[in-house]
Design brief:
The complex is a heterodimer of chains A (about 240) and B (about 140). Chain A has about 240 residues and is mainly α. Chain A is about 75% helix and about 0% strand. Chain B is of the alpha+beta class and about 140 residues long. Chain B has 2 domains: about 35 residues; about 80 residues, Nucleic acid-binding proteins (OB fold (Dihydrolipoamide Acetyltransferase, E2P), Beta Barrel). Chain B is built from 3 helices and 6 strands. In chain B, strand 2 and strand 3 form a beta hairpin. The termini of chain B are far apart. The chains are: A mainly alpha (about 240), B alpha+beta (about 140). Chains A and B meet through helix 2 and helix 5 of A and helix 1, strand 6 and helix 3 of B.
Chain lengths: ~240, ~140
């Protein structure tokens, strides 16, 4: 049953997946970018600056999704102490942080021409910054605490506490007055974004998810190599 | 069944989560007023003890046909469809600032109906659409 957890087996599948993503990634990126930057219409109000949305929104989604998965896996790790899970969370964190920072930076660049400011301390933006700090906390525990068991425990707890921040980010625009506008795409009900703009947005999301998966797999691979160097063959 | 150690860790985790969620809930509850990025004209009308020396932010919609631009200043009315507030501002406004759009003004209240802003931020809504579609919608509305 645990044959699938054998390191060489996992390694083989990672290599295959990386090869597959590499083979389709650039074509899809080109298609998605040309839809987002050229073929999609400008906004009636914002004009061409709306195109920042095609990077900003997917980055924010991926930042949130990565942290949620880190947190949920951390709960599993904290309870069952499965080492493989820790490797996975450790590998998601850097790319999640990258996308969170990307969301913040592109949001800032978008805010200047539309809202008239680079930065405000409203609930959505502040909670997003806190998310980035949780990521940094999570990553730095592994960098600075040399005792592995201790680092695993502390980083799991950081991720689990950070999980509380996720619904706060999601609902901040509904609970409080914020400068940030409410969500355009709703899980239930009609989206307030026109389909000619929704399609490139979802395409960009898919491409960025692929990129996220690619970086995650590469990082996961190095983590496994590191384990293998210690002459452990099972996780 | 699960080993005892696993159960112990799970219950420890459940308690930690419960405690921190309630803690954060109460913190947010008590901070509620401060988390609000701006006040609406109704908030200002209902507030009894306003500090007129402190900078505040008010937000709402720019009322239709209320925008007056002359050489020294820009005057308009912010409305939340219940109450209104007159705003005076001299400076540059963001691109998206226009009538019937969201706006946040930062500055000081002179009295309960008049506000002098020293910064204007445009607040846009969650609707995105191509310009042609907006024209069609406008025509249909007429």
């Amino acid at each position: 049953m645990f044959k699938i957890l054998n390191l060489s087996n996992i390694f083989y599948w990672i290599e295959k997946l990386i090869g597959f993503i590499n083979s389709i990634f650039f074509i899809l990126l080109l298609v998605a970018l040309s839809f987002a930057l050229i073929f999609s219409p400008p906004d009636y109000l914002q004009g061409d600056s709306v195109r920042i949305m095609y990077v900003h929104v997917p980055s924010a989604w991926i930042g949130l999704a990565s942290f949620s998965s880190i947190a949920i896996l951390s709960i599993a790790h904290f309870i069952f102490k499965i080492k493989n899970i820790k490797l996975i969370t450790k590998s998601i964190a850097p790319i999640g942080l990258m996308f969170t920072c990307l969301a913040i930076v592109t949001g800032s660049i978008w805010g200047q021409p539309t809202w008239g400011t680079w930065w405000v301390w409203d609930a959505r933006i502040t909670s997003m910054l806190i998310l980035a700090l949780f990521y940094i906390g999570f990553i730095s525990t592994h960098k600075f605490i040399t005792d592995e068991n201790k680092a695993n425990k502390i980083s799991s707890i950081i991720a689990i506490i950070g999980l509380i921040n996720i619904p706060i980010i999601k609902y901040s625009v509904d609970w409080w007055n914020t400068l940030h506008q409410p969500a355009s795409i709703k899980l239930t009900g009609e989206s307030s974004i026109h389909s000619s703009m929704l399609m490139p947005l979802l395409l960009m999301f898919f491409v960025l998810i692929l990129y996220c998966a690619l970086i995650f797999l590469m990082k996961y691979k190095t983590e496994i190599i590191r384990i293998k160097k210690k002459n452990l063959n099972r996780l | 069944m699960l080993p005892k150690k696993v159960k112990k860790r799970a219950s420890l985790l459940a308690i930690t989560l419960l405690v921190s969620v309630t803690g954060i809930f109460f913190i947010l509850q008590s901070l509620n007023k401060n988390i609000l990025y701006f006040k609406s004209p109704t908030d200002i009308k209902n507030n009894q003890n306003i500090n007129f020396d402190k900078k505040i932010r008010v937000g709402g919609m720019v009322k239709k046909n209320s925008l007056i631009i002359n050489e020294e200043e820009i005057k308009f009315i912010i409305t939340d469809f219940n109450n209104e507030l007159k705003i005076s501002f001299s400076g540059t406004v963001p691109n998206l600032f226009s009538e019937e759009k969201g706006v946040v003004a930062e500055g000081k209240l002179q009295d309960k109906t008049f506000f002098v802003a020293d910064r204007i931020l445009a607040k846009h809504d969650e609707n995105y659409m191509p310009p042609e579609l907006k024209d069609i919608m406008k025509k249909n509305a007429k």
